[in-house]
Amino acid sequence: MAFVVGLTGGIASGKSTVAEIFSRDFGIDIIDADIIARQVVAQGTPGLKAIEDHFGQKIILDDGSLNRAKLREIIFTYPEEKQWLDQLLHPMIREEMQRALNQVNSAYALLVVPLLVENQLQHLAQRILVVDVSESTQIERVMLRDGVSRQQAQNILSSQATRSERLAVANDVIKNDTENNKLLSRVTELHQKYLAIISKNL
Q: Do the beta carbons of residue 48 and residue 55 sit within 8 Å?
C-alpha cells in the first residue's frame, strides 16, 4: 500500500492547481475524489439510475447525462436531499478511491478529497496537506468561475468545513491567496519532505 498524502481545501482554494504541480513536475499519482464522483454518476451507472429514480426526469439532461447545475441547486437548498445523495454516493466513491490507491506506482499517492474533513476521511492518509485561502478569496473565485451569485457562493462555503476545522487536522499547509504564490517552490519543498519521511520509514 502506497504512502498517502491527503490533499484538501475549501472550494476554489486551488487544490487542482497544487495537485497538477505534484503530478506534472514530480510524477506523483493523483487520485481525485471529484473525478471519481463524476465517474460513479456517468451515463449507464447504477449511481445515475438511483439519482433519476429519486429526483425524477428533471435531473437528466437531453443527452442522458446528469444535470449537475440542477442537482447542485437542489442539494444546497434542501439539506435532507444533500444527505440522501451523500449516503448514496460516498460508499461508491470510497470503494473506487481504495481501488485506485491499490494501483499507485509513484513514490507516494496524492489523494485529493475536497470534503476530507467533513466526511472524516483523515484515516485514509498518513499526512494531510491543506490548501488554505481566505473566505473572501473563495467567494470571489467561485462567483467568477461558476457564474453564481454571492449568496450561492456563500451557501456552498457554509456547507463545508471552516478554515479552522481544516487547519486543525493539517500536517502541512499551502497558502494560496495570491495569484503569484510561488506554488512550485512550496510543492517542491513538500515533495522532498514526503520522500524523506518515506525513506525514514522504510
A: no
Amino acid at 166: R
Judge whether 178 is annotated as a binding position: no
Q: What's the pTM value of the predicted model, to 2 decimals?
A: 0.84
Q: What is the CB neighbour count within 10 angstroms for residue 53?
A: 9
Q: Residue 77 corresponds to which amino acid?
A: T
* In the chain, domain spans: 4-201
Cell numbers at 155, concatenated: 451557501
Question: Does the annotation list 15 as a binding residue?
Answer: yes
147 known member of a binding site: no
Is CATH 3.40.50.300 correct for 4-201? Answer: yes
Q: What is the pLDDT of residues 188-198, one digit of tens each?
A: 999 999 999 99
Has 14 been labeled as part of a binding site?
yes
Q: How far from chain centre, in Å, is Cα 78? A: 22
65 labelled ligand-binding? no
Q: Which amino acid is at 57?
A: Q
pLDDT tens readout for residues 95-154: 999 999 999 999 999 999 998 998 889 999 999 999 999 999 999 999 999 898 999 899
Is 153 annotated to bind a ligand? Reply is no
The average pLDDT across 63-85 equals 92
* Euclidean distance between CA atoms 69 and 49, whole angstroms: 17
